[in-house]
Amino acid sequence: MIKNNLKFINKKFSEKLLLSFNKISSSAKKSAVMCLFLEKNNKIYLILTKRSEKLNQHAGEISFPGGSLENHDKNSLMAAFRETYEEIGIPESRINVIGQLDDYITGTGFHIETFVGIIKKNTIFRVNKEEVSELIFLPIEVLQNKTNIIWTSKKFGNKSYNFWKIKFLNYNIWGATASILANLSVKVWETKLQKAT
Questions:
Q1: For residue 33, what are the domain limits?
Q2: Residue 17 lies inside a defined structural domain of this protein
Q3: How many helices (H) and strands (E) would you count in the chain?
Q4: What pLDDT digit, counting tens, does each position of 125-153 carry?
Q5: What pLDDT is attached to residue 161?
Q6: Chain CA centroid to CA 56, Å
Q7: How would residue 1 be classed by pLDDT, with cut points 50, 70 and 90?
């Protein structure tokens, strides 16, 4: 079966991923993001955002649409829908949720739940420039090639951290976003990733 179409991706989630994602219990601040697939001109992309430089947290970083849970959110999925609409203007009715990926706890103290969805055809994006400076269309072929998914390290202050990084054009995709994308790559395309020792 062709591994770069929505039918294949949907099948992977309905077959084995539905109940196989890793749930974590933690007291970290809860947040939820949408990992969204889009078909455009017969190619499949994942939607990422470059966060506005004006934001207080993670300014200028590349992320999935999403954010922190608020008191009025019924659950994490509703928070992911709300934040996605606020950031890129896509309402819940235009997203077909097909599953989840592993929970992730960031070094900055956030507990991220990731929902996977497919954006319906002919959906119009309305980017909120206060929150998002750029919409990024990441071709899924990038994640099918393990040489684009790099285990690296960097010093912050006097401490060294190891993390995943995704190689795509001149974008700096790292940290939680890259870890979630690496998890997606392994689960959907069974990429054999190695962490350098």
A1: 6-141
A2: yes
A3: 4, 10
A4: 999 999 999 999 999 999 999 999 999 98
A5: 84
A6: 20
A7: low
Any domain includes 71 = yes
Please report, for the domain that includes residue 80, its CATH number.
3.90.79.10
Structure tokens at 67: 């954010």
| Residue 40 covered by a domain | yes
- Alpha-carbon Rg for the chain, nearest whole angstrom, is 16
Question: Residue 34 and residue 72: Cα distance in Å, rounded?
Answer: 19
In-domain check, residue 1: no
Residue of 159, 144, 123 whose CA lies nearest to 191: 144
How many domains does the chain divide into? 1
Q: Are 112 and 180 in contact (CB under 8 A)?
A: yes
CA dihedral 169, 170, 174, 177 (to 10 degrees): -60
Q: Whats the size of the chain, residue-wise?
A: 197
Residue at 156: amino acid letter:
F
Any bridge partners for residue 166, and if so which? 149, 173
